[in-house]
Amino acid sequence: xxxxxxxxxxxxxxxxxxxxxxxxxxxxxxxxxxxxxxxxxxxxxxxxxxxxxxxxxxxxxxxxxxxxxxxxxxxxxxxxxxxxxxxxxxxxxxxxxxxxxxxxxxxxxxxxxxxxxxxxxxxxxxxxxxxxxxxxxxxxxxxxxxxxxxxxxxxxxxxxxxxxxxxxxxxxxxxxxxxxxxxxxxxxxxxxxxxxxxxxxxxxxxxxxxxxxxxxxxxxxxxxxxxxxxxxxxxxxxxxxxxxxxxxxxxxxxxxxxxxxxxxxxxxxxxxxxxxxxxxxxxxxxxxxxxxxxxxxxxxxxxxxxxxxxxxxxxxxxxxxxxxxxxxxxxxxxxxxxxxxxxxxxxxxxxxxxxxxxxxxxxxxxxxxxxxxxxxxxxxxxxxxxxxxxxxxxxxxxxxxxxxxxxxxxxxxxxxx
Length: 417
Ligand code: AMP
Known about the structure:
This protein is an alpha+beta fold. The protein has helices spanning 18-34, 48-55, 60-65, 84-93, 139-154, 170-184, 193-198, 204-207, 212-219, 230-246, 292-295, 310-316, 338-350, 364-374, 384-389, 407-415, and strands spanning 38-39, 45-47, 68-70, 76-79, 103-112, 124-133, 160-166, 251-252, 264-272, 282-288, 303-309, 328-332, 355-357, 378-382, 391-396, 401-406.
C-alpha cells in the first residue's frame, strides 16, 4: 500500500517546533494589542466569487493558484488564499461600519495557494495580518508600517528593508495606466507571454513580473510617482513625514506594485536582507485598498492592511526559542502506586504547575531517565513509606540532591522555583 503523506506543499508542525510558532504569535498579539487591534476569525472557505471580485481576475492568485471546488449544492467554494477579502466580507456582512467609525482588526491563520513549493513558499502557509477600516490616512499608514517594523524588531529581526510607494487613486491611476500602456504597447512583442496576455487589462502587473525580459522593460517604464495628483501627493508626503518623525527606516521604490489588484495609494513591502530566504525574501506586504469595500457592494470606506508570512519569519528568526520545560515529573516507586502518582500529578497541575508522569509500569530507574530527559527541574517520587507519612521525596534533577518534603508544602516548594 502506498504510504500516506501530507499534501505537497502543506506541512505538519510537530510539538517540538511549536514553541517558536507560539513566540511569533504571542509577540504579534501583544504588539497589535498595543495599537488597539482586535482579533477576527473568519472561515477558511469562502464563495469563490469573493476572491475573484475582491482580489481581481488578472492576478496570479485568481488565475492559477486557488484551491477551488464545487460543494454538493454545486456552489463554487475556495480555500482562502489571503485574509483581506474575507475580512472585508465579514465587515460588510455584519455592517460593522454602521456602529464603529474606525475598526482595527487582526488575524492569524492558514492561507492556501497552489504555488510551486520552495523554501519559504508553501501551498498552506500562515499569515498574521492587520486591517484598518474607516481611516483615510496617511498617519495610520505610517503607524501600520511602524507596527510591522516594531514587531519584527521585538523578534530580533532587524536586518530588513522597508519599501514604500504610492499607486495613486482615481484619475491619477487612470492617467498612469494610459502612460504605461503607451510605453508598453510598442514593446509588447518583447514581453513574456503572461505579460502580453495581461497587457491591456492590467498593464501595472508588468512592473511586478518576475520574467527577466519584463523586468528589463519595466526598468525604463514611466514612474507612478510622477503621475500622482495633488491629493495623492499630499497623502504620500504625509506618510513620509510621519515615518521620518517616528524614525522608521524606509526606501521609496517607484516600481513597487505587488501582485494584488486592489491596492490604491500607499503600498509597502518589508524584505529580509539575509540570504536565507533567497527569492522569497518578502516578509510582509501591505497597502491601502480604498476602493474594495465599495466594489464589493458596501459604502465607500477607506481601508489599509498588511500580511506577514509566518514561515518566512521563522526562517529569519535569529535565535532558537527553548522549549518550555516541565516544572516536575512524578515518579512512582512501584507500579501499584500508579493511581497515587496520577492523583499527585493532577493536584500539582491544578495548582498551576506543568507536570508529567510515566505510569506505564516501568522501573524507577527508567522513570527517572525520562524525568531527566523531560527537562523538568524536579522529580517527585511517590513511595509507600512517604505516602504513609504524608510526604514525598523531591529530587532536584539539576543539583542532583534529594530531600523529603511534606505533601502539604510541596506545591509551594515547586511554585517557588
Ligand atoms: P501577499 O498576501 O501575497 O501580499 O503576501 C504577504 C506575505 O505572505 C508574503 O510577504 C509572504 O511572507 C507570505 N506568503 C505569501 N505567499 C506565500 C507562500 N506561498 N508561502 C509562504 N508564505 C507566503
